[in-house]
Amino acid sequence: MKAVLFDAAGTLLRVRGSVGAVYLEHARRYGFDSGVSAGELGEAFVSAFRSQPPLAFSPLPSDAAEALELDWWRGLVRRVFEPYGPFPRFEDFFADLFAAFATDRHWELEPGCEELLRKLRKRGSRLAVVSNFDVRLFSVLQELGIAQFFDEILVSSRCRTAKPEPEIFRLACRQVGCEADQAMHVGDSPVEDVQGARRAGLRAVLYDPGNRFPGFEGERVARLTEVLELTADH
After folding, report:
1. 3-14+106-232 CATH, one of 3.40.630.30, 3.40.50.1000, 3.40.50.300, 3.60.15.10
2. 234 has pLDDT over 60
3. Longest pairwise C-alpha distance within the chain
């Protein structure tokens, strides 16, 4: 493989604790006290995220794109909290939450992440991130100490298209200078990552450390460092 592409959240990095716990921690600071649990908020987040339109916009000036990103997340988070009654200080809470997720405060690297990236770079592989996220990912990767390993970092909010659409994978391949059949994509979603990458002509590997998808048919790894073995033979 000339290039290895990676999903970000759920593959290279993960929320420290859980999304529901982080949301509840921040919300309580702003007077939210409905008795809802972190688990319930986490389930509400997953439901709201799945029902959102793609986080992908046409090319715009930076300020306009940032405003669209902010509105997209504000709408999602508002939907998470709507079922639990009035939240008078929602805007203050949301601003605090959005800023916190632009740092490494609530993120941590997946086990083996840095070791894998370091060894792939030493081997000469071209590396890229392909993520359905926004520009906050750049600062998160920087603060987690892994931004320097990547030749390209693509976030869907600035790419006009989002996974599982094949165009975002093709764009990543063009930017790292390889053909689709020279690249592998690794991610934790059978649909967004595996199906999307396959449709674009890439080799696709599912990262599934918890065996969440026992019926999945295809290449998968339970540890990130197993990617080294898969790329060594190609």
Report:
1. 3.40.50.1000
2. no
3. 57
How is the beta sheet containing 183-187 ordered, strand by strand?
152-155, 126-131, 3-6, 183-187, 203-207, 220-221
Average pLDDT, the chain: 96
Query: E strands within 21-146?
Result: 107-109, 126-131
Asked if 36 and 20 touch (Cβ cutoff 8 Å), the reply is no
- Which of helix, strand or coil describes residue 199? helix
Query: Where is 41: in which H helix or E strand?
Result: helix 38-51
* Four-point Cα dihedral 202, 208, 213, 217, nearest 10: 40
Give the chain's radius of gyration (CA, Å).
18
Would you say 11 and 110 are in contact if contact means Cβ atoms under 8 Å apart?
A: yes
Q: From residue 202, give the alpha-carbon distance in Å to each of 170, 183, 186.
A: 9, 6, 10
Beta strand 220-221 pairing with 203-207: parallel
- pTM of the shown model: 0.95
